[in-house]
Amino acid sequence: MKQQNTKTTNKKHLIMALVFSFIVAFLLFVYEPILMYSGNIDEFWFDLETLIGAMLLPFLATFFVLGAFYAVAFLMTRKKSKIFYAIEIISYSSFVYLYIHGNFLAGMLPSLYGGAINWWGEDLMAGHIISAILLLVMVGLIIFGVKKLSSTETAKYAFYITAATSAMMLVSFISAFTTPGIFVNKDIQPVATIKNINKISSNQNFYILTVDCTDSDVFNDFVSEKYSDDFKDFTYYKDAASGYSSTRNSIPLIFSGQFYKNQMEFNKFSTQALDSSKAFEQIKKSGYDMNFYNNDFVWNSKKSQIFSNFVNNLSNYHQGRFIAQELKYTMYKYLPFALKSFSKVESMDFAATINTDNIDGLYDWKNLWYYNNVLSKDPEMTEDKLFQYVHIQGSHSPYDMDEDLTPIPDESGTYEQKVGASAKIASLAIERLKKAGAYDNSTIVIMSDHGWHDHVPVLYIKGINETHDKTQISDKQVSWTDLDEAFAELAIGATTNELFEDIPTEGRTRYFYVDFEKIPMKESINYGGKSYDSSAWQTGEEYPVYRAQ
Q1: At what angle do helices 151-176 and 125-148 cross, to 10 degrees?
Q2: According to the model, what pLDDT value does residue 1 have?
Q3: What is the second-level CATH architecture of the domain 192-256+268-316+358-473+483-496?
Q4: Which contiguous run of DSSP H or E holds residue 236?
Q5: Tell me, what's the pLDDT at 111?
Q6: Which of 74, 95, 421, 460 has its CA 20 to 30 A from that of 287?
Q7: What is the distance of C-alpha 320 from the center of its chain?
Q8: What is the pTM of this model?
Q9: Residue 46: its H or E element
Q10: Residues sharing a CB contact under 8 Å with residue 415, sequence separation 6 or more, in sequence order
Q11: Of 200, 242, 230, 213, whose CA–CA distance to 462 is shortest?
């Protein structure tokens, strides 16, 4: 092999190291944040412009610091070039090793539902094994390269491999910009604060408590056993049927009656649907102070300003906390399996990055938060008519509390216990209105945005001044497409005897859509509470994922 000039080689390797510094900064603060955003556009309060603005400074800082490090290392090792080559080899090899984890092994990672992740559990053991084998292979290749070639050549080839992975990264990066809705401006996308959450009206209340992910029959078992007196003035719709298995799609369905079928960008659809809500229009017209406590929805419209507790100043966030949220997600993807627990990524919480100095605190959907901050406190009474839509975690995983609201380890909890917690919270909310002397003048809806195992969500309704000797049970085949109009009627004083008058008790076809965002949407017929062995049967209709034209 021809011996190369050491000085020339060193300069080339310094340039390679500086290019590598750019690649690392690009992955951390450009590539990965934009990929994260493109895959979860409708789950974040911020838009692409805000994201890029937040990442620009750390990108430049990382590029500068890494570049300075390699420049200093280069100057200090001019006469001991093998040290610089060793630094290069370790740097480039580590990058490729971590890149494989973040882009080829990411499918083995658990979903982020907020529960504790057992990183050494059986489900992730295959990831640990592959990660360890990959490390041994890469160390073996490095040793082979250094012995059979040279440190110089090994560093050069390691850089070439890094450059090749960067080319793949660039292809994914460019394709991310074809994601529908990625360029949507969210200047008026609201975020829910806790303003008015402790209030109860001495005039009229319209209170909707939505317990996420709650099956009707399991919830009703707890009501029948423990809380029948609290629910005696309600009508229980045992044959209700949701349309989706996600909150994102359920909210516009509930408040407009319109199905999303991948016909356009979801942001556009949801905004148009909520803009057309009969319920919101009638509730506002009826003089209610309107409040909506939920952050998992999309309504990028000035009409969202009808809610008193919304804020939408996207510039008012803490950049340090914002960067920390992004980095823990990147660590979750790219660290070896043995180190992923250090990411502390059990849940992503970009809402926590919003500054609350000049606003009320941000709403938190956790059951225990709602109990500690609302249900266990004396209410603030107001004479204004008050509408509150409150979406809590309900029966959603993690299964970290029992039916008495006692926190328990996630791995020992069950879905049924979490449903029991939802039922207790609902009963406490009803009792709170009674203690405040506001129960009779309240319209109360206890519901779920969607069910879980059978897509039959819980639905109890009590109109203003409605009383019964015991809970009424309705066989009407209610669909979530009916709720927008029903809520509008409740706003002008309707009771459950006047709701759903044209809804049959049998023979109605109701639809359900499997709504994973990155696959075709499959249509099913939902038989609700009168299902056979399964609550949904596929019709064969599919709606391809929407692609921007």
Answers
A1: 140
A2: 39
A3: 3-Layer(aba) Sandwich (3.40)
A4: strand 235-237
A5: 77
A6: 460
A7: 21
A8: 0.86
A9: none
A10: 218, 395, 397, 399, 452, 453
A11: 230
